[in-house]
Amino acid sequence: MKTKKINIGILGCGVVGTGVAKLLMEKAELLESRIGVPVNLKYVADLDTTTDRGISFPEGVFISDAGTVINDPDINIIVELIGGTKVAKDFTLKALENGKHVVTANKALIASFGNIIVQTAREKELDFAFEASVGGCMPVIKSIRESLVANRIDSMTGILNGTCNYILTKITSEGCPFDEALKEAQEKGYAEADPFLDIEGHDSAHKLAILTSLAYGMEINLDDIYVEGISSITPMDIQNAREFGYSIKLLAISKNHSDSVEARVHPTMIPESHPLAHVNGSMNAVTIDGDATGRTMLYGAGAGMMPTASAVVSDIADIARNIMTGSKKRMPILGSPQKNIKKIPIMPFTETSTCYYIRLEASDHPGVLSKISGILGDQGISIKSVHQKGRRTNGTVPVVMITHKAMEKEIQKSLAEIASLDAIPEKPVVIRIEEE
């Protein structure tokens, strides 16, 4: 039987939900011309139906009961935009059980419960799509799953959180303290009232868990990703980085070692020559290194009503085309057939290797630097350069060291021993360096 129209039900009418509804209604003719049938917004469900969203819904479309949407036999695609995990998980699984395809932008949901949701969708021969969960309007999931299908992906490096990138850009350009930059980000709507997930790196980790699964054919694994945020970054560190030819960014880094995968999120110094060094403000970008393509880079708005809504609607269009042609399981949800999805371990963070920036306050006494150098040397860590930064204060001088490549566990052992010295009154600051 020929499909006459595709009915859509949206759960959640926050910023992104409102944007998706706007696109579906305002671009109805354009979408029909490109998909081949009308895409009809039948329901938008939200507990709050009184707040003005700046959009006028047809009568009967805007309702408060999500169950009505999930249980409607005429709904083809459910768009989950509630956020969080518990209710979103329950509604997503219920929608799949009821035979509905599901689209979401919820990276926390996928990173935490993606494996069970994907399994359910496969069993029901339904689509579960989540392009908007990583990188906003950047088609990074589509690129990995489709455009780069002939590549062995060797590594990915991304700026995946606009809040952190805005804050670091602000500190870099104006030298303002972290708290001041965060406050401005909140005032401009780039940061939530509770910014914990953003500034402590967890939002980026959710996204990295999704990308590593797609890129390397592995189950989604959030728990083993190392996560460190940007709240301890100071204008001094950013100034020092600039003098050494680096920029500081919160990076999500993944490297393919065949039998294991690196996956880590932390503040990172990268050379000014690196393309990500010039991604500023609230923008996102990701570089992907494939064996056939070399390096490719995607850049765009990583959040915001309409950029994210655009990515959601792209998933709706893909699923609508599958419905039109009667295609089932055409595109593996995680990029590979289930039989080829492996439990590839994430390498312990202590086993990873990189170069390091170390800043410490040291008592201005003879022999202190040689003692510090000796501790590093005992762990096989070679120092590339040492700089005394600024003048003595309170009997101490700021010292900055750049190391050659070393293993994380060796650095941590050294820093613990250095921090225990009487000549070091404050905990050393360490920032990892990723060279080209």
Description:
It is a single chain. 36% of the residues lie in helices and 24% in strands. By secondary structure, the chain is α/β, with parallel strands linked by helices. It has three domains: 163 residues, NAD(P)-binding Rossmann-like Domain (Rossmann fold); 162 residues, Dihydrodipicolinate Reductase, domain 2, CATH 3.30.360.10; 84 residues, Alpha-Beta Plaits, CATH 3.30.70. Strands 7, 8, 9, 10, 11, 12, 13, 14, 15, 16 and 17 form an eleven-stranded mixed sheet that branches. A six-stranded parallel sheet has the order 3-2-1-4-5-6, sandwiched between helices. The longest helix has 21 residues. The model has no long low-confidence stretch (mean pLDDT 95). Pathway: Amino-acid biosynthesis; L-methionine biosynthesis via de novo pathway; L-homoserine from L-aspartate: step 3/3; Amino-acid biosynthesis; L-threonine biosynthesis; L-threonine from L-aspartate: step 3/5. Its EC number is 1.1.1.3.
Q: How would you describe this structure in keywords?
A:
3 domains, 14 helices, Dihydrodipicolinate Reductase, domain 2, Alpha-Beta Plaits, elongated, alpha/beta, 36% helix, 6-stranded parallel sheet, 17 strands, 436 residues, Rossmann fold
CATH architecture of the largest domain: 3-Layer(aba) Sandwich
CATH fourth-tier homologous superfamily of the largest domain: NAD(P)-binding Rossmann-like Domain
Low-confidence stretches: none
Oligomer: single chain
Helix and strand content put the structural class at: alpha/beta
Total number of strands = 17
What is the number of helices?
14
From the alpha carbons, calculate the radius of gyration and give it in angstroms: 24 Å
Cα(first) to Cα(last) distance is 55 Å
- The total number of structural domains is 3
Q: Main sheet, how many strands, which sense, barrel? A: 11 strands, mixed
